[in-house]
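ZP: hey, is the magnesium ion complex queued? I don't see it on the tracker
AM: it wasn't, my bad. submitting now with these inputs:
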Amino acid sequence: MEQCDAVIVAAGSGTRLGVTIPKAFVPLGGKPLLAHSLETFIAYPEIDRIVLVVPAGLVDRAVDTFADDKVAVVAGGAERWESVRNGCLASDAPWVLVHDAARPFVTASVIDALLVMRNRFDCAFTATPVVDTIRTFTGDTAGKTVDRSKLVRVGTPQLFRSSLLPKCFDLAATLPSPPTDEVFLMQQIGIPAGIARGDPKNFKITTKEDLEIAEGMLRLGMK
Ligand code: CTP
Ligand code: MG
């Protein structure tokens, strides 16, 4: 199989978490949040190189803390897609796997499920089923129930054929609002996206409650 590098985006601020340090550097289980997924990728044999994307002011600190033969550190941008772009520019592998540092519980089996998609797709992502009843609303009044059997929860890691990314980033720069992921951009340029089985435990830490749940999971040995 052709080589795949990992890009871990960790340059967000964590506005919804309500923290004063960037979210990826907030402690979880006694180490920075980003260290959890970084260790999983370092231990994953098929990935030779990891690009860690951190806020510009924390590059030196990240180099000191996370330096490893496999790990390069670059500065992120104001929007997630700009951080992904900066990370991808530091890779010369034919494939890149993009992962949110905010998802500490990624596992080797989730990465396995994504990497096999290289056989059939130029773009793929991990996802989990929607289990709640989903309804539209206006103000405090409910609208229609949405058919959840046609929906998935999109997660990371996500996989891309590197040669297609420059066109995606060119497009992103022209959009009125920033894309939430690169799968959206791939679809806009006509590339089909495959769906690989994710793991509900690989949820994204967004709020204070998510961080509390993650601490509880670690205490229970769920990693
Ligand atoms: N991210 C990034 N660069 C940005 C914005 C986000 O690298 N300019 C990364 C975050 O560090 C995170 C992932 O993208 O690992 C998913 O983003 P999100 O959960 O939204 O994190 P934040 O943007 O930090 O949080 P918030 O939106 O609450 O500010
Ligand atoms: Mg964000």
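AM: back. The radius of gyration is 17 Å.
ZP: great, adding it to the tracker
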